[in-house]
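Take a look at the protein record below with the fold in mind.
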Amino acid sequence: MEKLPKFGIPIIIILIIAIIVIAKSAVTIDSGEAGVLYKTFDNGVVTDEPPLGEGFHLIAPWNKVFVYEVRQQELFEKMKVLSSNGLEIQIDASAWYQPVYGDLGNLHQSLGKDYLQRVIQPAIRSAARSVVGRYTPEQLYSSKRDAIQDEIFEETKTILSKQFVQLNEVLVRDVTLPNTIKEAIERKLRQEQESLEYEFRLVTASKEAEKVRIEAQGKADANKILSASLTDKILQDKGIDATLKLAESPNAKVVVVGSGESGLPLILGNN
């Protein structure tokens, strides 16, 4: 077996050390992620520089990189809260959030990787309790769902405004009431709907009756005016006009014998 040259062993040692150093120094940041650099011998977490972006990076082997997901993420929460009258309501909500990219170093330094459990969950639960406590179960079940969604979002956003976390949206997926309360509300809503339908029918019938009354009054007024305007002379003239038109008709033969009480000719027959 041939012996290695005297300089061979040191070269191998140097190569091994180089490989270890490169392995410790090489950092790859995947898509949708960013890295926070920690300098062991220089004030620790770097907060005054942008985080390390996607791709390959070389750092000093004694430093560290903490990788964070910076894409939008979702938190799903089932929360039991009390309404304004003390009834327990279950709210199913989702929060869309992501760390503030430029403040990733501050986020790591102040909260760490478990920032979701440290600030986001407590914030949305606190906001949900505060908002739902202002409404009755009936309002939550029917007309106020969109309102509480917006209010929970605004209150949670206010709480998180100084926590280096960006809240994008809060969605209230479901509001679950106790069965007895839900049934009572549904009965009340049905009764209100039936009452509205009945009132509509009454209004419609009243309008129809008013229309008939107005039409009848109009006819009565017209007949009254007409009766007041007709005299014996006018009636006699109209009778003469009608007789002449009938006499001029080629399809009729008129025989005039005497006259009636009104002085009009009497028509005895025609073909």
